[in-house]
Amino acid sequence: MATAINREPRAVTSPFDLSGKTAIVTGANTGLGQGIAVALAEAGARVVGVGRSPMDETAKKVAAIGGTFHAIKADLSSTAPLQGIVDETVALAGQADILVNNAGIIRRADPLDFTEQDWDDVMNVNLKSLFFLSQAFARHVVARGGGGKIVNVASVLSFQGGIRIPPYTASKHGVAGITRLLANEWAAKGINVNAIAPGYCTTNNTRAIQDDPDRNAAILARIPAGRWGSPEDMGGAAVFLASRAADYCHGTILVVDGGWLAR
Questions:
Q1: φ, ψ for residue 150 (rounded to 5)?
Q2: How far apart are CA 231 and CA 100, in angstroms?
Q3: Which of 90, 171, 197, 245 could make a disulfide contact with 255, Cβ separation 3.0–4.6 Å?
């Protein structure tokens, strides 16, 4: 006797689907953070944006694709607001599933002239707050169970020296290192810790060198893709690392640079 074949369509779920997840994205008011926030929303995540300036534009972009966005105003130059960011997210959505540590600042000067204040300002935002916000997020994830994803934003300057940006370079080397350390520590707790390393992108942080004809030309000459990166170019990488498609990625530094480091 022939066996009946079940012809009911099988539900197919994309491994990149973030429906039902809540993502915290720091520095979501502009630039890479905005691009990442919109991409996560497109993948189905509720997005909680964190920034020290208004995030109205990001909220409009998310709303335009039918997503959900909630803004938290916070200055990440201090660790004071970090626990509150996690607490507010959990109160709003019930849990926090994804953390994207994108917020960062840059100061430029000859190393002979660099001030201690400028050094501290960069390191506080780019590295210190990144670690302690990750800690607050991870404590929540461990307490509730079920795992979580942390995506840090490193840089091609996690691998190179650069010029005139000593604390930025130091901080981004630190981001790569702390990403690997936390991956070692937290993989067994169900938390994936990875990072994106963007190349040269059109953001406020790079405006000075975009506007310098000689530096701009030199940078473009080295990029095989022939253009600066855009915030949208980082979206797919963030969705991947935040999704179950990256469940076996721990300590990965995913370079998205148009081929800059390959040159």
A1: -115, 125
A2: 14
A3: 197
CATH value of 22-204+231-256 in 3.40.50.200, 3.40.50.720, 2.60.120.580, 3.40.50.300: 3.40.50.720
203-214 pLDDT tens trace = 988 988 999 999
CA distance 194 to 221: 29
Task: Copy the structure tokens of residue 174.
Answer: 């630190």
Question: Does residue 168 have an active-site annotation?
Answer: yes
Both tokens of 86, joined, read 């996690």
> Among residues 69, 168, 240, 260, which one is catalytic?
168
Look up the pTM and report it: 0.94
pLDDT reported for residue 3: 45
Is it the case that residue 134 has pLDDT exceeding 50?
yes
Q: Give the pair of three-digit tokens for residue 13.
A: 């779920």
Query: What are residue 22's DSSP bridge partners?
Result: 46
pLDDT tens digit string along 92-112?
999 999 999 999 999 999 999
Rg (CA), the chain: 19
